[in-house]
Design a protein that fits this description.
phosphoprotein, 5-stranded antiparallel β-sheet, kinase, 47% helix, Sig_transdc_His_kin-like_C, alpha+beta, 5-stranded mixed β-sheet, single chain, phosphorelay sensor kinase activity, rod-shaped, 448 residues
């Protein structure tokens, strides 16, 4: 605010100075013209013998007429008995000369604007000096007063208006800052006050802050839910293992070591699967660097179908569905989708790989991987929920209690890390998962 006031004051002072300079110059030129005109008129009276002494002060206050010997032969009453007020002469009779003389040129002692004009007749010459007080730098006291008062008023108004505007913007920001200062992890539901739209910047800031707080609250709630789900899924196998061990310790002679070991290994496998999935998610969340190479989805799908047993796996692939990505992660994605379909299928799983939009050899093609089972399917309302971490639908829990609830979230995150999408589409029966990943450009070279 102080800087603004000083800047406005300097600017106003500069403008006032320019105004005074221009007015002073115009006033000086006007006064010079008046004095010159009067001196020229009096000079024209000398040859005609019409000069009177003393000279009238009707137009300018000071006039002197000097003969060729520099003797004062006529003057205005206020210069009677005084020596010549100037010593300079014009260049010739056709011109005049103007100077500003300070000191005792005129009785008041002020600086005077003096104009010298020559007159001649029958070989004689006369010099006429006309004088008037020079225009002061401030031109006129009233003008100076008006400019000073105007400058003060303008500076005051600008500072007052700026103060009101700045305070109007700072106050909402201060409230926002104060509210943010009181936020705690246990009070994330609170929001900062949103000013009226008249304070647009503050309004947009508060709106953005509240939107960010909404995202933060949602993230914290997901984190709490994630922690709760992890604890629940880890607690079950640990509790089962503890129960088996405690039972064995109570009756060691009756323990079937092979059966106990088999049971514990199953629980350990579940714990290991959960930990492995959590590590995979942590790497994906952190954006860990991966090795990128050209990978044929048809090849991955064929290999996955070949190693599966149990329920019927039908593999329908179109060769050349090559994408750029991490082979290990894409293999994990295909494995998760097929494993999920196999767990929920009644008797059959279809794995299909095709290409879309590359008929003309353009770079806009897409590799499509579809995994379809003939199970109970997923209702439209649950199609996004299954991609959330540790979410397992009731039907899935009934069919298989050993899942971690992380396979599909991992699959989607891998798809998104490859600039692709993983969605669930409508199907006549069962679940229909569709993966879409950009195809290799037409002139790309596959890497091993």
């Amino acid at each position: 605010m102080l800087f603004l006031g000083v800047a406005v004051a300097l600017l106003s002072t500069l403008m006032s100075g320019m105004v005074i300079f221009i007015v002073h110059r115009l006033a000086t030129e006007s006064r010079t013209a008046t004095v010159n005109g009067t001196a020229t008129e009096i000079a024209s009276l000398v040859p005609r013998g019409e000069l009177r002494n003393p000279i009238s002060e009707q137009v300018i206050p000071y006039v002197q007429v000097l003969d060729s010997k520099r003797r004062v032969i006529a003057s205005t009453e206020n210069l009677r008995g005084r020596p010549p007020i100037a010593s300079f002469l014009p260049a010739n009779t056709e011109s005049e000369r103007t100077e500003v003389i300070c000191g005792k040129a005129i009785p008041t002692g002020e600086c005077a604007l003096v104009v010298a004009v020559q007159a001649t007749d029958n070989g004689g010459s006369w010099t006429v000096y006309g004088a008037a007080p020079s225009v002061p730098f401030y031109v006129d006291p009233l003008l100076a007063l008006l400019l000073v008062a105007g400058t003060v008023i303008i500076v005051g108004l600008i500072i007052f208006a700026s103060y009101r505007i700045i305070v109007g913007y700072i106050e909402p920001v201060r409230l926002i800052r104060a509210e943010l200062g009181h936020l705690r992890p246990t009070r994330l539901s609170e929001r900062v006050p949103v000013p009226s739209r008249s304070h647009r910047e503050a309004h947009d800031l508060a709106t953005t802050v509240n939107r960010t707080l909404d995202q933060l609250q949602a993230m914290m709630e997901r984190e709490r839910q994630f922690t709760s789900d992890v604890s629940h899924d880890l607690r079950n196998p640990i509790t089962a293992m503890r129960t088996e061990i405690e039972d064995g310790l109570l009756a060691p002679d009756e323990v079937d070591v092979v059966k106990l070991g088999t049971t514990l290994l199953a629980d350990l496998d579940r714990l290991q699967a959960i930990v492995s999935d959590l590590l995979t998610l942590a790497k994906l969340d952190a954006g860990a660097p991966t090795t990128c190479q050209w990978v044929d989805l048809a090849e991955l799908a064929t290999a996955e179908c070949a190693r599966r047993s149990g329920k019927q796996i039908i593999c329908e692939v179109t060769p050349g569905a090559v994408v750029k990505g991490d082979r290990v992660r894409l293999t994990r994605l295909v494995n998760n989708l097929v494993a999920n379909a196999q767990r929920h299928a009644r008797s059959k799983v279809i794995v299909r790989v095709s290409r879309e939009g590359d008929d003309t050899g353009s770079d806009a093609g897409t590799a499509v991987l579809e995994v379809i089972d003939d199970g109970e399917g997923i209702s439209p309302g649950d199609r996004e929920a299954v991609f959330e971490r540790f979410v397992r639908l009731e039907a899935g829990r009934r069919k298989d209690s050993g899942g971690t609830g992380l396979g599909l979230p991992i699959a989607r995150q891998i798809a998104e890390s490859h600039s692709g999408t993983l969605t669930i589409q409508d199907s006549d029966r069962g679940a229909h998962f569709v993966l879409r990943v950009p195809l290799r450009p037409a002139d790309g070279d596959a890497e091993s």
